[in-house]
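User: Fold both of these, please.

Assistant: Here is the first one.
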Amino acid sequence: MTIPALRFAAAGMTIKKNGNPGMDFNFTEEQSMVRDSVASFLQDKYDFDTRRKIVSSDAGWRADYWKAFAEELGILGASFSEELGGLGGGAIDNMIIMEEFGKALVIEPYLGTVVIGGGFMKHSGYAGAASVIEGIVGGSTTIAFAYAEPQARYTWQDLKTTAKKDGSGWVLNGHKAVVVGAPFATHLIVTARTGGAQRDAGGVGVFIIDKSLPGVVTRDYPTVDGNRASEVYFENVSIPAEALISESGLALVEQVMDEAIAAVGAEAVGVLRKLHEGTLDYAKQRKQFGTAIANFQVLQHRMVDMFIEVEQSVSMTYMATIKVGESAAERAKAVSAMKVRIGRACKFVGQSAIQIHGGMGMTDELAIGHYFKRATMIEGLFGSVDHHLKRYESLSFDAAA
């Protein structure tokens, strides 16, 4: 498949022929600087031992690091337009940052705040978007997306949470499950049914609320990969009219979630690179029968297969990231195709890394087990392999009809 050069230029990337089939991707100088600055910061201040201390702390994250992301690195504004107080970037910048965060297993809520929260602000036409983005860019606003419900699986519009009109405002009731990043959040973006039946495409309201509002009850807990999440309950929560982002927001939710899935793909690329690199280094050091296990042909084949999975994931993630700005159907197909590839790679590369390491690979003291846990979580995040295969199939049939 070939892509017109103009599409890459519009994405902030350049391309060049190298005499081989296909094309090479080159990042702009500004994007390379973003990558280098993030990588340098994380190498200096976010090594594996530091992350272990962060994960085991009462807070579960480093608010001072989040402030540094805003003020020292400026990356919280990298993906916003200059008109909104950002640096003029977009999805490519999110991809670059998320890949570096994946390599370091960063806990801080960039996905929920910048990618998802910022995505709703950029695409909704919400009257208060500029104010919210100012808080995001400055590091004072953190956001968690409360969308998942126990009965819904990956169906965004399957909602039992309701928002009912009350004068000029709304009253919110319901339960949201596994709201990742909610313990760190100052605000929640919430999907709720404003009309229609439980699974109708219409009547999907999207709201942004202060998490400290009376009636918002949270039960916080750690997740298996070191993050924090909450069960969030809304008990007759009165919210003002200006909290409404969209009253018919399913298309908006799908757009923002596709961008989030592309960003998670970039994070997965970082995780997969570290799984492969860590396994290769271990195989060169670990000896059996007087020789490094890296010399065993069967393990060489396995590690080559791991490398191929990583590189295919890189290519699919680049493609999906570039296509998030296209039509809804093209965007969704590219993102689902990427998520299938990422899900399979996370399973194969992660399990292969643990198998080659043996039982010690799952110990808390060894980094490889932590990367495996994050890869396993990413495999099912925002849709499993089976879900995205069905989605891609459905979109392909619709296009052919």
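And the second sequence with its predicted structure:
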Amino acid sequence: MMTKNLFKKPIWYLMVLTAGMLFTFTSCDDDDDPVLNDSNDITSFVFNDLSPAVSATISGTTITAEVPYDADITSLTPTIEVSDAASVSPASGTTIDFTNPVTFTVTAEDGTTQDYTATITVAPIPTSVITPVWERTLASGGLPEWFTANNDRDIAASGDYVYVHNNNDKIRVLDITDGTDVMVRDTVDYIDGKENYASGNLFLLGMDVDSQGKILASNLRVGSADQFPWYVYKWDNKDAEQELLINYPTPEGYRLGENLAVAGDITTDAYVYVPGSGFGTESNEVLKFSISNGEANNTPEMIVLDGITNMGNAPDVQPLSADADANLIVTGTGVGIREYTSTGSLVGQLPESLNDGENAPLFAFALDIHPFELDGRKLIATTATDFTANAADAGWLYIIDYTDGWENITADNVTRYAFTPEGNIDTNFNGTGGVDVIVNGSTATVYAMITNFGVAAFDVTIDQ
């Protein structure tokens, strides 16, 4: 057998072999040199810490986004996606103050950089827009001919009709679409509310409708030995007979009936609320009457309101729902506008800082209130006058947005509409009025009246 021995090869053979190996190694090194990525783009810029998340628009090297009005623009945390192998500074997930435009620098894998400018703006505060549907007011040229000097005090709406308290013993019926007078029993244009159960001075005053459109109204009573009880009447419809629903001996020192609220269906389960105070009396209690299986309990629950001793003149109370534990919105000259729990604990109130200028009447005399929700906003409709001047100059419908908490209400959250022309000389001596609301999708129709100033319907929408 022959054994191979490289050392016996000619020298020229070894030189060729070595050169080939060197060439092979050199060629492999050249093929393995990495090609570094030169992409330095921002591909996504999202504020996932907001709810819902907000995605910015990227156009060239400009980044723009509008965040909700209540977002804290001084402390936002963007989630940023960039090109493969690139990095960004400030880094994704960093909390940043966007009060002014912020520059973000993207560095590619090969070290090249590109700057982006992010400009973040805050959306305007949602505002309530009031649009008249129909008006029978001083501002529009005149009142209904049946309006009296100072004895038209409340309003309610349901189905095809609007009901307006008139002259102490009548309920006028209006077409809900245009405000024109509607006949009752084909003979008159009002429901006769004169008491059939007892005599008295003011036969009707507070008024409301239940969830099924049944009409409720009550008399006015001041508790004393020689006074008649406080009654709540009902009518199943505009043509129905008057019936007695609640019969309550008014306690000494109470004045009942300035305003009335019903929540639920009185043929099954419902609650009737009445504030227990008014002219010449002092009280911080709301009376809550329950109705179960269509039967009214004539002994009310007494809800004592914390933090006040007197609700003032012509107070009003409205529940936020028909639930047994519903919170209450309360108003009166002694309290401004407040929210209480069902047990009387204060939740919040209209800030005293608003008691100035155009919003001062909300503290002087908010006449009647109605809370409602629209497009996710928590709103209150109220009518108000400057009762300190006998309301000779003006009366207004106000819409108050308290969605972000009572303590955060500013003038930007309040919208108002005038019932009277500039320089009005008619007077609302009693400082009274009423308001009701029907919500249909993204529009709420507010039905409002102010004594001696008129009655009207307004559509309310949210501009956001």
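DSSP finds two helices and 35 strands in the chain.
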